[in-house]
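Hello Y.,

Per our agreement to keep a running log of every chain we model this quarter, I'm adding this entry. I've kept the format consistent with earlier entries: sequence first, then predicted structure.
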Amino acid sequence: MSKYTFTQKNFKVFEVPGLEGRMSAIESEIQPKLAALGTYFTDFLNTHTPDEFYAHIAKHARRTVNPPKDTWVAFSTNKRGYKMLPHFQIGLYEDQVFVMFGVMHEAKNKNHYIEVFEKHFDEIENLPDDYRICTDHVKMEKPLIKDLSTDELKEALHRAHQLKKGEFFIARTLSPKAPELKTDKAFKSYLEDTFDHLLKFYS
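Predicted structure for the entry above:
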């Protein structure tokens, strides 16, 4: 039985109708794995950075009617929350596992963090071909960096700067049948490799 890896059964949780039913399924089927990933990668980040990280599992506490379409664990250097800081996330939708690092629009000093990405612009463009950007964390769509022109990528960063609701993340995704999800060892290796790349933009 997998401790970390998301299985076909986990993805089917997002087919459960109704808020109460889906939340119950998320809590029983997915959150134990998010907790395990939270422990493992908190230690990983604490080892690979000079800072102390904390894991935050999504609670979806504000929802009253609509069931969540995704869920995640986030990592930040604040024990109380993550939205106000640049942070890492591991999570899933019904047909996608995602891993990403960046800033939400709620982030304090958001422009400073966007400038860090801008300083590493060449490195962003030269990431492996399966890396993506995410400019809205509530949307599943994450275009591949290799499919964007230099001007389009610069415009995404510019919009994150200028718009109050602007956001910017570097991301990587897996489909439910990806070979990296066959075993815990393969999944952890994939995540560690991804975090190694994402840490280039952590400052």
